[in-house]
Amino acid sequence: xxxxxxxxxxxxxxxxxxxxxxxxxxxxxxxxxxxxxxxxxxxxxxxxxxxxxxxxxxxxxxxxxxxxxxxxxxxxxxxxxxxxxxxxxxxxxxxxxxxxxxxxxxxxxxxxxxxxxxxxxxxxxxxxxxxxxxxxxxxxxxxxxxxxxxxxxxxxxxxxxxxxxxxxxxxxxxxxxxxxxxxxxxxxxxxxxxxxxxxxxxxxxxxxxxxxxxxxxxxxxxxxxxxxxxxxxxxxxxxxxxxxxxxxxxxxxxxxxxxxxxxxxxxxxxxxxxxxxxxxxxxxxxxxxxxxxxxxxxxxxxxxxxxxxxxxxxxxxxxxxxxxxxxxxxxxxxxxxxxxxxxxxxxxxxxxxxxxxxxxxxxxxxxxxxxxxxxxxxxxxxxxxxxxxxxxxxxxxxxxxxx
Length: 403
Ligand code: AMP
Fold this sequence. Notes:
By secondary structure, the chain is an alpha/beta fold. The chain has 14 helices and 14 strands. It has helices spanning 61-72, 108-116, 125-138, 158-161, 168-173, 182-195, 249-258, 262-271, 274-279, 285-293, 297-321, 331-336, 338-345, 385-397, and strands spanning 2-8, 13-19, 24-32, 40-45, 50-55, 86-93, 104-105, 144-148, 204-210, 214-220, 223-227, 326-330, 367-368, 377-380.
């Protein structure tokens, strides 16, 4: 059975085609700069490692999805003979609010709800909904499944997700912690447990998704009990350009002293802060590590702040769960940066967290990086959100409930 996974962003569409027989990826790619000059398609066929790049005017998502379908059935670079071979389409959807605690088949009612949730995720849900509508037009009758970034965290209790604001803001406007990267946290926790030949239900796990966006989750007995991203993906750890946790009074301070409006402050916190803001060099951790190695003090400071805050979350989540058995690092920085991993767990030996510096030199591969005697295992697990979406999609169209 072939399943197409789509991730429709504001100006891009990422896709992968899976053969669920052996869960192999047949093709994957991205349509970029939709609606902007210089739009293009970058398509890879996994078997034979062929790549195809084409610049083309792609004014909107509808055209973008048609371009994807076109290349999938292309004589030279295609991986299917006809679109009939696609048995279902799985979509990554940013926000499921409290309405979607698990992945779901998308009918008219679900689509309406995803659109309504745009109020909570205005930069993402409208594009996700648009992708669903376009596929419905081109492939009517092909089942579509939505997999939400927020669903995995719906297991949190009120003590973890209600903010200490007047309660009516939660009741009337849905202002609460939702958490994101749920698909990734869940996948790497399960994968790590599987490698250790343990049941995820028997473990206390802290998963660290450290990419351009970053979040950490406490997973107890297989359930998310707390996570660092909140009402939006701005809260929590230091990110590429996002500030993470700050004193909220800084916002009113800036409003009063600089007379900045909401948009300017939003831009500051989301696009000009984090690694970029501290270092003044780049939002990319590779550039930061390179600059720090050359003695750039603010690049070093950016690494220090990032790692200190990760460490504090590890301590907090160990406390929240009454202990920790396993730490899992994932995403661009978590999978590749031995510097960040080492520094983030430095001094945590008292919690039983003992990293093996040699094993920790690993990049981008599944590995155990704790010393043999470490009571807490530390693992690097490459994330695979698309595979989770494909698996959930297959499960749901086969009549099982989503996760
Ligand atoms: P992601 O959002 O998961 O794609 O992660 C992007 C982040 O991962 C960027 O800050 C990259 O610099 C970082 N990254 C990717 N490869 C490496 C690497 N080899 N060393 C350090 N950071 C890396």
